[in-house]
Amino acid sequence: MRRLLLSSVLPLAFGVLLGQAVTAQQDVPGLAGPYLAARSAVLEGNHRIAAVYFETALAADPGNPVLISNAVFAHAALGQWARAAVIADMLPPEASAQELVNLVRMVNLVMAGDLAGTRAAIAAGTGAGPLIDDLAMGWIHLGEGDMRRAADSFTAVAADDPLADIAYTHLALARAAVGDFEGADAILSGDEFGPLSASERSLRARVEVLVQLDRRDDALELLDIFTASLPDPALLALRARILANPSPAPYEFITTAEQGLAEVFFTIARALSGESGSSTLPLLYARAAYGIDPTHSEALIYTAELLRAQGQYSLAADAYAQVQPGDPQFVEAQLGRADTYFEDDRQDDAVTVLSDLARDHPDLPTVKAALGDALRRTERCAEAVEAYTAALDGVDITQSRYWFLYYTRGICFENLDDFASSEADFRQALVLNPEQPQVLNNLGYSMVEQRRNLDEALAMIERAVAARPDSGYIVDSLGWVLYRLGRFAEAVEPMERAVALLPTDPIINDHLGDVYWMVGRKREAQFQWQRALSNAPEEADAIRIRRKLDIGLDRVLADDGGVGGTQ
């Protein structure tokens, strides 16, 4: 991929530049406190707080180029492009952050619909950098009514092989924007330039193109192929809209040059996301895409995903919340918002979001399944069973991909001590996915704990171990079923391996202690029980472990009526 013009300035803005500001703050009254607060916010990736404190620091030292550039970045990272531009104008021309300033100014030009100014900035070398600028020129030409030059621009970018897919996709979108739907489909289908990498965005564009060509059946078939494995709510909604309208609705995916320019920023943001491991540049580009095109909800959702990756849960939740009801991406945004709340330890808020979503979208099994997951994670298992059941009622239960619904409902039944229902769900999950190691392990372990069908349980867990030999929990299950079967010597090796894989798990250490005791290694058993206690087991488990340390496993088992009785 081409050289990224901002790849050096952005690390500088949050690294070397901050270091340079230390000298300045020592000599300026009132600067030290805000600077240190801003620096702390930067290190934590908190753009909102950083913006506040950099501006406060600027009030104490208005001409400091380091503070200016960092304030510009913080506001850009928040999507506050107008404010970023105001502060950018304070930066002297010789400052090292001009490339960031150029990006901010270009985004503001496009947001204002000033295509001539955008073209002039690119021609002067003060655009967003070659990666963006070259694609942008295609859309600028289109906005000026020159489709031939637009096509030439995209084709020229495509000559840079790593960018060919992106450039040809944008050429297809440009053709569709001017009503050349046959030409657009020739590219999107792969007929003109060969197969292109597919994305949800390009899929939606092609579906809309096919509808314009009176090929509704082809559009629906394409959607069915994709939603069969991934029931995306936005794609399902698009399918429903097509079915509900016998006459083609107007093409509306991208119809203006400004929308095309927003798509350039979004496309490059996605393309860069895995390139360097940093989310900094993709975040700015995603913010730019949404700033330019406020209907680009995918850019907003991607912004939220990047903020989540940075641990900026409050900002991420705010971004998801900006997607409005009625938007095709609303359901996806709310699902992401709920996940963000879980990551931010706001479980009740997550459940509320999903409950409201399930109420408002009763026809979406995906939403009910997500609600079930949230209720299960918050130990509201009876309610979770209802949600999972509702989800199963809305899907084709013969499809293998729904094994997980039976599996998770089975876990809830087990937590409710309804072992018959739990086993039925686990077995149905295995019908749909016969060698799924999690299900094999859970069903096998459940039967072990109930001390029944131990031979069948052993066979299941052995299959699970063969599939996941590095899973400490599954290997523990193997050792534990051997223990239940009285095959204590055979249980030692898998139980030791389980502890090696999960050395801080209290239950697995407890299990190893029991096994050691039964093979006569009592001092080692006591060590494992002490180790289990040091890893904070649940109180009921801790009480039992202390009893074993006080009176020995033999007497504990005698009180319980036989081998087992631990987790």
Would you kindly provide a written description of the structure presented here, covering whatever features stand out?
- The chain has 567 residues and is mainly α.
- The protein is built from 33 helices and no strands.
- Helix 25 packs antiparallel against helix 26 (437-449).
- Among the domains are: 1-100, no CATH class; 113-295, Serine Threonine Protein Phosphatase 5, Tetratricopeptide repeat, CATH 1.25.40.
- The protein is globular and about 85 Å long.
- Mean pLDDT is 90; it is low at 1-26.
- It has helices at residues 9-13, 16-27, 32-43, 47-60, 65-77, 81-88, 98-111, 115-123, 130-143, 147-158, 164-177, 181-188, 200-212, 216-229, 233-244, 257-272, 280-292, 297-309, 313-321, 330-343, 347-360, 365-377, 381-393, 403-415, 419-432, 437-449, 454-467, 472-484, 488-501, 506-518, 522-534, 539-551, 553-560.
Quick structural overview:
The chain has 567 residues and is an all-alpha fold.
Topology:
Elements: H1 9-13, H2 16-27, H3 32-43, H4 47-60, H5 65-77, H6 81-88, H7 98-111, H8 115-123, H9 130-143, H10 147-158, H11 164-177, H12 181-188, H13 200-212, H14 216-229, H15 233-244, H16 257-272, H17 280-292, H18 297-309, H19 313-321, H20 330-343, H21 347-360, H22 365-377, H23 381-393, H24 403-415, H25 419-432, H26 437-449, H27 454-467, H28 472-484, H29 488-501, H30 506-518, H31 522-534, H32 539-551, H33 553-560
Helix pairs in contact: 3-4, 4-5, 5-6, 6-7, 7-8, 8-9, 9-10, 9-11, 9-16, 10-11, 11-12, 11-16, 12-13, 13-14, 14-15, 16-17, 17-18, 18-19, 18-20, 19-20, 20-21, 21-22, 22-23, 22-24, 23-24, 24-25, 25-26, 26-27, 26-28, 27-28, 28-29, 28-30, 29-30, 30-31, 31-32, 32-33
